[in-house]
Amino acid sequence: MKICVIGLGYIGLPTAAMFASAGASVVGVDRNPRIVEALDRGEIIIEEKGLEELVDQVVQKGKLRGSLTPEEADAFIIAVPTPITADKKADMAYVASATEDIVPYLRTGNTVILESTSPVGTVDGLMLPILEKSGLKIGAELYVGHSPERVIPGQILNELVNNSRIAGGINPESSHRIAEIYKTFVRGEIYKTDTRTAELCKVAENTFRDVNIAFANELAKICESMGVNVWEAIDLCNKHPRVNIHQPGPGVGGHCIAVDPWFIVEKQPDTAQIINLSRHTNDSMPAHVASEILALLDGIKDPVVTVLGVTYKPNVDDMRESPILHLIHILRERGVRVQAFDPYVTDKPEIGGDLEEAAKGSDLLVLGVHHDVFKDLSFKEVGALMRHKNFYDTRNFISAAAVEGAGFRYYLLGSK
Ligand code: SAJ
Fold first, then answer.
1. 17 close to 5: Cβ distance less than 8 angstroms
2. Residue 11: left (phi > 0), alpha (psi -120 to 50), or beta?
3. Cα–Cα distance measured from residue 73 to residue 85, given in angstroms and rounded to the nearest whole number
4. What would you report as the CA-atom Rg of the chain, rounded to the nearest whole angstrom?
5. Cβ atoms 339, 303 nearer than 8 A
6. pLDDT in tens, 380-407
7. pTM (predicted TM-score)
8. What is the set of active-site residues?
9. CA-CA distance, 131 to 147, in Å (whole number)?
């Protein structure tokens, strides 16, 4: 089987490598020559556990190679970005152009699979009219559908193989063919359904998490006013066999959970009330944390804050939609000098460089992201460099005892 994967990002590249390691002959297509050239050397330009080794292996075996343009294949997988515009609408330009790009290479018996997270109706309304230009009979000579990924950055290779997934075809034969293609490497169950259901499931899964986190964040604000520690309360609530409240924090980042709920709001603005409010609740968290921090700095002249961790979540290098970047921006706008340190951000020396530099003269240390390495921080040494020893934890990650023992005042989001 030959597979052509369009888009070599966080999803396309690992997927291409998985198909290749399962024995398929794979061509990975990207418009960015830097990605294609790196791939042909067996290298990658993103950070993901185990991915570079796997890519190198399959490239050496001749099973995976890069290309700037598509080629004839048995199956085409579209894994291009679907970002949101400034007015919170899905930008489907990459899906449209990737679909246009493959049309000249389509042959009888091919399967086209959209992996990119997309608003309901994308396959029917956007892709099929383009694919019809191939002259092939859709559903009889050309099989089409949506099979969204469910993998979590940091665990992509493991989850690609072991998670269950959905095969949503435009007709049963398309669903069947999509399932057979993924079965080559997926060990999880593959559930067949129609295309619109598959599209809805993907955005609903991420929206479930967003709404649940918004609930946790709202509880955090409520607890601050009521003198309750939200973390302890949530922990105890979750001892109930049917309760699973997520964790509060400084906001929701990444290119999935902070984005996908808008795809539902866009299509059903009058009905998607809870979803809309949850997005706004989570987006309000950086400003909420900033106002808590400004209150702590009250009375300090020319305040300096040190932020530990700026990525969108722990133990990854990805800063896309990071709420911590918003927090830093708000604090700077309010006249606070902010110095940041994140050991994962190696390509920006002013952030990835030096904890000592970032802590020098600071009045408050803010834990923005709970990277595992921060557990080993010596608060004694860091505190010695600071002007005032204050510590604010947005993640309930560092114990009060650890920082208070080093002479810090300890503050925690969601508690008073
Ligand atoms: N977060 C919280 N509280 C929580 C959990 C997460 O504030 O209890 C924040 C994180 O700090 C981060 C953001 O949410 O800023 C998103 O992180 P995440 O780990 O929840 O999810 P992603 O965006 O890395 O990956 C999600 C996953 N979706 C679900 O768990 C339903 C993943 O399985 C999807 O494949 C991925 O989106 C995607 O590509 O759509």
1. no
2. alpha
3. 33
4. 24
5. no
6. 999 999 999 999 999 999 999 999 999 9
7. 0.95
8. 202, 256
9. 17
